[in-house]
Amino acid sequence: MLNFLIRLFYLPLFLIVGNALAIFIVQAGYSKGWLFLLVSAFIVLAFLLERAAPYDAAFNESHADRIRDFFHFLVNEISNVLGVLAVPLIAGLIAIPSVWPHVWPLWQQLLLAVLIADVGITLAHYASHRIDVLWRLHAVHHSVKRMYGFNGLMKHPLHQFIETLAGTSPLLLMGISQDVLSLLIVAVVLQLLLQHSNVAYFTGPLKFLLAINVVHRFHHLKTAEEGDVNFGLFTNLTDYFLGTVYYDRRRVIGSDDIGIGDQPDYPTGYLSQLIQPFRKQKTYSRPSEA
């Protein structure tokens, strides 16, 4: 019974309740520090529920990667916070009138920000599978040997910066507020937890619209022939435009199916992963050429 309830409510819990709590915190004027506590609570919750209702119990087993993933999370989220703090400075440098709908309710502003950012991030992600220098940075994320919520946050900081720039530049030019950008960061973290989640949660027809775990697992398959699909962060809408949407309900994806096919010994330590994109390699191919 508990397993069923977790699978039933997991998606609305993270997608709706998590974002609703973040909106409440901002709307009520509480310190932004509460947003960090909210995100931390959902990360802990993800760990607990993944053990109670796993898609694959093997994905819960450590590959000596938890400390590394924590450092990825810490560095990348500090970068996000610094980016939010810089919004007033950036706004002062942009000498064009704001067209952001500040009078809309916060939830509507967040939804608009999500839809706009999703296009830019998805296109940057798509390009990262086709441009060598971007793939070298993005390969850090694809080196995972298991999928659980927390390692959705595992990215090379330079690649995260590129994706963030692609997603937020239109928003900054439109004059988005610091509050809405803070909510967008929370939404991104919650979405990454959902996207990499090891919970076998119910999706129904939403899997054809939202970029959630049952479709994102196909993106992490080892070869380009199978894995060069489903690039979306929040939705599959841009993937439909690119012609890269794929889902097969019969396919069961395990640890042996994911990773980088031509780089099975990709470094696993945090510092070594930061350096790896800049190392000279005897052979090199991005997923689309694997």
Distance between the termini: 43 Å
Secondary structural class: mainly alpha
- Give unreliable regions as ranges: none
Number of helices: 12
Please state the oligomeric state of the protein chains shown: single chain
Characterise this structure.
The structure is a single chain. This protein is globular. The protein starts with a helix and ends in a 15-residue tail after the last helix. It has one domain. The chain is mainly α and 290 residues long. The protein has helices at 2-27, 33-52, 66-85, 87-93, 106-127, 132-142, 157-174, 178-195, 213-219, 224-227, 237-242, 270-275. It has twelve helices and no strands.
